[in-house]
Design brief:
With about 300 residues, the protein is mainly beta. The chain has helices at about 1-20, 215-220, 240-250, 305, and strands spanning about 35-45, 50-55, 75-80, 85, 85-90, 95, 110-120, 120-130, 135-145, 155-165, 170-180, 180, 190, 200-210, 230-240, 280-295. The protein is globular, with a radius of gyration of 24 Å. The relative contact order is 0.18.
């Protein structure tokens, strides 16, 4: 009875405290007193992929609106000998594309320059990156259905990778494409090769495709349910260590759901963009890729995945 009374007293005390904490408190936060230029730029060694630089403006951390595109900038990339001008495509999008067929070469150092007007002020930005030699070779990719047969809208697939990790220490950014839909950075990943350095890679599960209706609304056709005839392509980009650190800072900053790259730039996320009030990154990276045609979307296993 003594224990019961003490428990009853404790419950009544908790209820009383909860009932007393009903006062609404308005928290006033200081608005953003300056606007940042946010840069998402990647130069690859592939002529079949567009070389892109996405420019957006920053917004207050607590504001839900989509960051505005930064239009009308002069964007160019130089290898120290020649300079290539990028074109905003489409106009007003803040997405700048290099000329068709333009790409980088492993071993080359590339400098991105941006001249743009922000808040009525003309600003200049630069960033440099050296393209490393590919660290991965002989890539192959395959898939395995990991959901339930009755799940025809929301379901899961596992994607596995085969190939050879070359002897040098390497860091990788892994991105995907489903037909013509490229996966955004939020659905990609970055890893280092410390667990398989210089080794043959067999059936390494690099990603899980959570193809759901909600994701399709957020990201488009890259998150649609897999169907017979779809082509899934995996890209393995060899990246410098500083970009790997940037990506890991991006992931751990809790802005991974932001569209486009950075909706509210965290103060601890590194950048290589030089200039006043800048965030984001420009990286030059070599790559390898592999594709698989979806022949049986609900295939529960495959001989390659089982190792024979």
């Amino acid at each position: 009875m003594y224990i019961f009374k003490n428990k009853l007293f404790a419950i009544l005390l908790i209820a009383l405290l909860a009932a007393s904490c009903t006062e609404v408190v308005d928290i006033h936060t200081r608005g953003m007193d300056r606007h940042y230029l946010v840069v998402e730029g990647m130069l690859t060694d592939r002529t079949d992929l567009p070389q892109k630089v996405q420019l957006t403006g920053s917004v207050d951390y607590f504001e839900p609106e989509t960051p505005p595109a930064v239009s009308g900038a002069r964007v160019a990339v130089s290898d120290g000998k020649s300079t290539v001008e990028y074109t905003e495509t489409p106009s007003g999008s803040g997405c700048y594309i290099g000329p068709e067929g333009f790409c980088g070469t492993p071993g080359g150092t590339y400098t991105l320059t941006i001249d743009v007007e922000i808040d009525g002020e003309q600003r200049h930005y630069e960033a440099s990156s050296t393209m490393e030699e590919p660290g991965f070779a002989d890539a192959e990719v395959d898939y395995m259905y990991a959901g339930k047969p009755e799940m025809h809208i929301d379901s899961l697939w596992t994607v596995a990778l085969w190939g050879r990790d070359l002897p040098q220490t390497s860091y990788y950014y892994i991105n995907s494409r489903l037909n013509d839909a490229v996966f955004p950075m939020q659905l990609s990943l970055s890893i280092d090769d410390k667990y398989f350095a210089g080794q043959k890679v067999t059936c390494f599960p690099v990603t899980t495709l959570a193809q759901t209706g909600l994701r399709q609304k957020m990201y488009g056709d890259c998150a649609k349910y897999l169907e017979t005839g779809d082509v899934f392509t995996l890209y393995v980009y060899t990246i410098p260590k500083d970009y790997y650190d940037f990506y890991m800072g991006f992931v751990s900053s809790s802005v991974g759901a932001a569209i486009p790259l950075i909706q509210s730039q965290p103060s601890n996320c590194p950048t290589n963009i030089r200039g006043d009030y800048a965030a984001g990154y420009f990286v030059a990276c070599s790559s390898t890729s592999a594709s698989v045609v979806i022949d049986q979307p609900l295939r529960p296993f495959y001989k390659k995945l089982l190792g024979f």
